[in-house]
Design goal:
The protein is α/β, with parallel strands linked by helices and 465 residues long. The chain contains 16 helices and 13 strands. An eleven-stranded mixed β-sheet has the order 1-2-5-6-8-7-9-10-11-12-13. A two-stranded antiparallel sheet has the order 3-4.
């Protein structure tokens, strides 16, 4: 059905203006000019990559970081990628270190992995910015590390990064360039959505600034991510117009959307999500001192032990530590999540501050046990108050959070492929309810042609040939 669209009301206009003003202070409108940096060779196999905790590539001198513009390159090196760290991927790949910005406007170092298909492009390559659902607090959980041959891979417990690497491989098989940012920043601030959004946008700038990728400022860019990856993707889409307006982002696809982390925290009490969702609050406290202060002052001993147990874990073990916990019950004060400090931070990381400029494809399971669907419905309605909004919202009634993560990928690829090809798109906002997206013909028409080439890619075929 079509949503009725109306002009901005005063509070919405004020929120958008404030967001734009703050993010303009952070970075301004100018992108860094292309920068040449030495490219170090990849480590010879079987030498394993160094853990990020001990790798100076992730920790450039602060004075060097301060001297750069957002997205400007600091260093680069070739890397060998592998599916689940075991099956080598025959593709040109590099890690790039670049300057980004934290939520206080300070310069920070960031890292992303960039992938370029083998062979000559038949037309200007588009760029997929794929935000992985890292959902982790340990440095060794970064996608840039886990995607490498001979890394800890799935042994680290980041199932999303390991299993869904087929998505960027399939995108590269279509001839797309790919950038996969470490969205959580140098402090692994899982849950700090605005930070993750800015890092994602600066990673796109860095990919365009990195000469071997063969991209330029006019490159068509698509953003995509699911669950924790949608947190970064959604905030990047909202910040695009104010933080990086020069980027030619033509489409955004996201699913399992953490539109309101505060609502997800409340829903997680005593449920299966009680292990992973509070980790997002722990990560956000690394970026927002007021939330860290609340933890320090009011957590009970069992709450401190809960936090300490998760401080250095990846996605799966984090979720398995007391999965049915009631994090709010671990505070000395009642209703800790209603404390003004917690509410202030949850409002800062809630989506809906600005309407994305690019067309959106949003998908959500109505049976999602981890992310509350009503908060996604509300986000769509907020976007669609803007007459310029272009949102295709699909609600699936068969899947749940994890199964939709697998099912949505072909629909995401199809949506972005159409945007890259300039296919016409219905204007305005449209919400559709599906019994199951498995019955969608476009899912299978996109998926089936990619199955054989992607399998062959996992067996050594050059990606893109």
């Amino acid at each position: 059905m079509n949503h009725t669209r109306s002009r901005f009301r005063g509070p919405v206009t004020a929120a958008v203006a404030l967001c734009a003003a703050v993010t303009m202070l952070f970075a301004g409108h100018a992108s860094a000019a292309p920068t040449q940096v030495p490219v170090k060779p990849a480590l010879p196999f079987p030498i394993p990559p160094t853990l990020p905790e001990f790798d100076p590539f992730y920790k450039p001198p602060q004075k060097v970081v301060d001297s750069k513009k957002p997205g400007e390159l600091i260093a680069a090196r070739r890397v060998h990628l592998a599916y689940t760290a075991v099956l080598p991927i025959n593709i040109d790949a590099w890690q790039v270190s670049f300057r980004s910005t934290d939520t206080k406007g300070r310069a920070i170092p960031s890292v992303a992995t960039v992938m370029k298909p083998r062979g000559r492009a038949q037309r200007p390559r588009p760029l997929l910015s794929f935000q992985q659902a890292e959902d982790s607090l340990g440095q060794y959980c970064r996608p840039s590390y886990l995607m490498q041959l001979a890394s800890l891979g799935p042994l680290a417990g980041s199932s999303e990064t390991s299993s869904l690497m087929y998505v960027p491989i399939a995108a590269a098989e279509l001839g797309w360039a790919v950038v996969i940012p470490d969205t959580q920043g140098p402090k692994q601030a899982f849950g700090a959505g605005p930070l993750e959004g800015m890092i994602s946008l600066d990673a796109i700038r860095a990919a365009e600034n990195f000469k071997p990728m063969g991209l330029n400022p006019n490159t068509k860019v698509g953003l995509a991510g699911y669950s924790g990856g949608a947190l970064a993707t959604g905030h990047a889409a909202e910040l695009h117009g104010s933080y990086a307006p020069e980027l030619n982002i033509v489409g955004v696809a996201e699913g399992g959307i953490p539109a309101d982390v505060g609502a997800a925290l409340k829903m997680s009490r005593g449920t299966l999500g009680g292990g992973i969702i509070p980790a997002g609050a722990i990560g956000a406290a690394r970026e927002y001192p007021e939330l860290a202060q609340l933890f320090r002052r009011y957590l009970k001993p069992e709450g401190r032990a809960f936090v300490a147990a998760k401080e250095n874990l990846c996605q799966v073990p984090t979720a398995m530590v007391l999965p049915f916990a009631n994090f709010e019950g671990m505070f000395m004060i009642p209703n800790a999540l209603s404390d003004p400090r917690a509410v202030s931070v949850m409002n800062k990381i809630k989506m809906g501050k600005a309407t994305p400029k690019a067309p959106m494809f949003m998908i959500q399971s109505t049976n999602d046990w981890l992310i509350p669907r009503p908060s996604v419905d509300k986000l769509v309605k907020t976007y669609c108050l803007d007459p310029s909004a272009n949102v295709q919202y699909l609600r699936d009634h068969f899947s749940e959070h994890i199964t939709l993560d697998v099912f949505y990928a072909p629909l995401m690829i199809k949506f972005l492929k159409d945007r890259f090809n300039g296919e016409p798109l219905n204007s305005g906002c449209h919400t559709k309810d599906a019994g199951t997206i498995l019955a969608a013909s476009e899912l299978w028409s996109t998926l089936l042609p990619l199955v054989a080439p992607t399998i062959l890619d996992l067996l050594g075929k050059p990606v893109g040939r």
